């Protein structure tokens, strides 16, 4: 087996192969799902696997795999995604994919007799189509043709046309023979860095509930309309935003969060009272009762604001996933592996969604977190050290050796 220095150099080499793909003038990368840039990322991943003489293949929805065994035996699947948000960072998703390649290389060098496959899943981010985990969701049955057939990309391309032009299937065969799924990912939060801990062992993945809120008032002249005669959609929306922040704070003890990440104000003119506003609301948590409470509070608040301000408000559910629990067996064994290696660990939930969510209903599933600088993610400043990726790989590989 190679030395630690050689392993870090290998990680640096394969990471560098992805570095400039999708790079933009702002210093970040834009690698949207089911675009040519994401194609380039997958082609590079496939090429890196072939360089090490591994098997490679692409499934019916465009997910790419590198494997040491492609028989019908149950196998251990690792992986993550290669797409990004607009002007995003270079570590989200990619860290998990290159970790899988290093672990495959270790298994080959040590003649580890265990079937392993590493996957790069398509379109994990919702940035291009407004829906996340498309590649992993379709092959696990979490998503169906009906869930995605109406999706349109940021450039106006229908996903049905994209699938057709690439020879992909909207009704793919369900993935088979996955014994366990294991994903390394940057934390996308500050906990590990703040506590000086090397790896996180994930207990749960928060379930998101997303809504598009339309607030309809009346656009009128800002100078000629008295204050007590207005139907200001933006003021009504602002009141709802602050109430969502309040209930999020109240429910934070149960690890729930609320975010309004999108505001579109119309007509967005200085001397016109806002007549229509659209909000994008993101509610997340690991406690279903807490999520139910927040959603109920949001809807009752909407009714109160409508009555108080004489506006119309409509809430459209645009997607939801239940919170997901990771395998207790795998958590226990990963803890034992980190302790054996004297790599510090913390048991913790994930506030962000991941491809692991899709696999949790078809096989035992686990996640390893590694620290990222100041918790920054979905941002050009996103950073995680190669040494952190290496530490996460060591824990995962130790776990796999124990599964022989």
UniProtKB/TrEMBL annotation:
UniProt entry keywords in alphabetical sequence: Hydrolase, Metal-binding, Zinc
Free-text remark on how the cofactor is bound: Binds 2 Zn(2+) ions per subunit.
Keyword Magnesium recorded: no
Residues binding allantoate, per UniProt: 210, 271, 284
Residues binding Zn(2+) 1, per UniProt: 81, 92, 185
UniProt binding sites for Zn(2+) 2: 92, 125, 378
Cofactor(s) for this UniProt protein: Zn(2+)
Gene3D superfamilies to which the protein is assigned, alphabetical: 3.30.70.360, Zn peptidases
Keyword Hydrolase attached: yes
GO molecular function, one term: metal ion binding
Domain Peptidase M20 dimerisation: start-end pairs: 210-308
Family: Belongs to the peptidase M20 family.
Protein name: N-carbamoyl-L-amino-acid hydrolase
